[in-house]
């Protein structure tokens, strides 16, 4: 079995070893060309967006005025803090329902949209197309569409988040299932289990930690999205920020922004905590 | 001699023009443990995978419990195949579920789809049967532990219990002990031999170490380049037979 050994010497023998060859220059030129293209794209983008740092330097005074007017924050309980907290709760509710109510649709589309669990080629293509559509349309556009049906308020915001989140979470879940070890599913197939039984007893239990992690991540994102939806009339703290800017109550605006900051940190810490517990 | 439970003739399979199996004949009878030996790429695993239908054979007949699988289709083919269970090198259990829940999934084909969606709904009689199977592999006391908390050898024994819960009378094991330490490997081999000798199952195992085959198997089948080179009781197996069999591995390592 083992090769004959002649002592313990492992000294290299340069007279017999083949000469090392450097990687070809052509590969180097490829990287240089790629870098040139990236630089060129950035020049076009800077021109296209009017990205001029000089303007910011020249206009610092306007910004300073604006910030000075908003300081100190308005700490009046009845007029600012209480309405701010109430509205923050609405924002949180929009984010929560937008996340949890999209679980059934996202799960269904994920199972059909993952190569390893989809029953047929056409169901895979169809599910992927639906997911792409929901992902491609921004939640603000969905919100504007639903406003025409149910009027202004938090409800169209929830509906918009359900739609958009179905697309994003469905895709993330489908990819998690495709990346997980397919061995247990194959074992159940060889034991005669049908497709649904394989998915329910092998694939899904294998990806539960990833699914919950992605769900919490989407909750985090959706709470922040619901802030922006508030700006276009879906209620919540975003709406209050918008109103305080329009009525030049910049000190109240600052209070609301500080409340938002606390909300975002709390949600972020909470989901990080749960994800850590799951990983352990 | 019993009638063979698994009877395979002229099995052939090519991958991309390369012949992996070239007219392989063998049979496995109830009560015997047959070892498949051979170098890497000799077609041992492909043989088992063709029998299970995980890989589709190009030609040949496979008779399982007297039924010619080539003549069956759809549901009746699935039903006939259920008599054979597979044990994998990588074990393929769900780590987050308990040993008992994993064993129950061997019986999924006997459950209604509705009751099989979650272990919460698994029928009582299947839970009891799964417990009996775990008891047979000596792990009843670990039934409610998550599989991820068991050792590799214990996990492979749970996988054997899953095969038993499938009520298979033919067990095909694809390198069942390659990933295990020597002690656990010994235990799993004793278990597989016990299934054959005490419970009358027909067991075929692809093995990487000939010494395991010599100690536990009744018969050894040697494959070389997709052809059968010997099929004889292990007692009559000589060093020259094995030397010939593993020549390709030595070539590859040189």
UniProtKB/TrEMBL annotation, chain A:
It comes from the Bacteria. Its main location: membrane. The chain crosses the membrane at residues 28-46, 90-112, 133-152, 223-241, 253-274. It is found in: Cell membrane. Residues 88-271 form the ABC transmembrane type-1 domain. It is a multi-pass membrane protein. This is Phosphonate ABC transporter, permease protein PhnE. It comes from Arthrobacter horti. The gene is phnE.
Automatic annotation (TrEMBL), chain B:
Residues 6-250 form the ABC transporter domain. Keywords: ATP-binding, Cell membrane, Membrane, Nucleotide-binding, Translocase, Transport. The keyword Translocase applies. Signal peptide: none annotated. The keyword Transport applies. SUPFAM superfamilies: P-loop containing nucleoside triphosphate hydrolases. It holds the Pfam family ABC_tran. One of its GO terms (molecular function) is ATP binding. This is Phosphonate ABC transporter ATP-binding protein. It comes from Arthrobacter horti. The lineage of its organism: Bacteria, Bacillati, Actinomycetota, Actinomycetes, Micrococcales.
């Amino acid at each position: 079995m083992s090769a004959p050994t002649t002592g313990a010497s492992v000294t290299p023998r340069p007279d017999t070893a083949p000469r090392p060859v450097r990687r070809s220059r052509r590969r180097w030129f490829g990287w240089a060309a790629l870098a040139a293209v990236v630089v060129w794209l950035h020049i076009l983008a800077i021109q296209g967006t009017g990205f001029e740092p000089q303007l910011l330097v020249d206009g610092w005074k306007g910004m300073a005025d604006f910030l000075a007017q908003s300081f100190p924050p308005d700490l009046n309980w009845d007029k600012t803090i209480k309405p701010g907290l109430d509205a923050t709760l609405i924002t949180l509710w929009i984010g929560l329902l937008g996340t949890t109510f999209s679980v059934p649709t996202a799960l269904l589309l994920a199972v059909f949209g993952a190569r390893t669990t989809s029953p047929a080629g056409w169901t895979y293509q169809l599910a992927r197309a639906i997911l792409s559509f929901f992902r491609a349309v921004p939640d603000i556009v969905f919100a504007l569409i639903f406003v025409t049906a149910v009027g202004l308020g938090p409800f169209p915001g929830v509906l918009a988040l359900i739609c958009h989140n179905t697309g994003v979470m469905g895709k993330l879940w489908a990819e998690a299932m495709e990346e997980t070890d397919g061995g247990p599913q194959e074992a159940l197939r060889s034991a005669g289990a049908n497709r649904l039984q394989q998915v329910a007893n092998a694939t899904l239990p294998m990806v539960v930690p990833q699914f919950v992690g992605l769900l919490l991540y989407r909750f985090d994102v959706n709470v922040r999205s619901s802030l922006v939806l508030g700006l276009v009339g879906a209620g919540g703290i975003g709406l209050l920020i918008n109103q305080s800017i329009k009525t030049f109550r910049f000190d109240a605006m600052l209070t609301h922004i500080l409340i938002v900051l606390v909300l975002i940190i709390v949600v972020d810490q909470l989901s990080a905590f749960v994800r850590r517990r799951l990983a352990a | 001699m019993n009638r063979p439970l698994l009877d395979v003739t002229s099995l052939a399979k090519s991958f991309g023009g390369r012949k992996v199996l070239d007219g392989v004949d063998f049979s496995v009878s109830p009560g015997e443990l047959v070892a498949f030996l051979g170098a890497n790429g000799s077609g041992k695993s492909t043989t088992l995978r063709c029998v299970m239908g995980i890989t589709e054979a190009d030609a040949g007949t496979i008779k399982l419990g007297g039924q010619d699988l080539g003549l069956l289709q759809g549901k009746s083919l699935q039903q006939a195949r259920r008599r054979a269970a597979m044990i994998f090198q990588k074990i393929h259990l769900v780590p987050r579920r308990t040993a008992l829940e994993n064993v129950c999934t061997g019986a999924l084909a006997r459950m209604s789809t509705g009751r099989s969606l979650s272990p919460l709904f698994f029928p009582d009689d299947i839970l009891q049967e799964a417990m009996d199977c775990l008891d047979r592999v000596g792990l009843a006391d670990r039934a409610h532990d998550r599989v991820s908390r068991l050792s590799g050898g214990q996990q492979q024994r749970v996988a054997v219990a899953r095969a038993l819960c499938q009520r298979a009378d033919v067990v095909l094991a694809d390198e069942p002990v390659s990933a295990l330490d020597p002690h656990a490997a010994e235990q799993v081999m004793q278990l597989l031999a016990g299934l054959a000798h005490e419970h009358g199952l027909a067991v075929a195992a692809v093995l990487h170490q000939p010494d395991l085959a010599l100690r536990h198997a009744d018969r050894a089948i040697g494959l070389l380049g997709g052809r059968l080179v010997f099929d004889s009781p292990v007692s009559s197996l000589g060093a020259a037979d094995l030397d010939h069999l593993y020549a390709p591995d030595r070539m590859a390592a040189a």
